[in-house]
Design a protein that fits this description.
Oligomer: single chain
Low-confidence stretches: none
Radius of gyration: 13 Å
Strand order of the largest sheet: 1-3-2
Number of helices: 2
Number of strands: 3
Order of helices and strands: HEHEE
Mean pLDDT: 88
Amino acid sequence: MMPQKWNPDVPELGIAVAAAWRRRGVGTRLLAAAVEQARKAGHRALSLAVMLENPARLVYERAGFRTVAIDDEAAAGTMVLDLTGGSGTP
């Protein structure tokens, strides 16, 4: 079971990169494009759920996502990116 969506007003992002394309910057570019689209659409924030051991967590953290909830039983977390330009989590 993945963590529950952090906030019903914040869209949840879901992306995946095929194993053959990992570690080539594809995920970073895909994430950047999704964040830009969310900004253009006027969203204040984006959320995503990720397994705690997933190396992609580092990509999300570099993009500014911050962990707001952890489900220890599922070993997964919810991360949020503030798109307003302010500090902290919306």
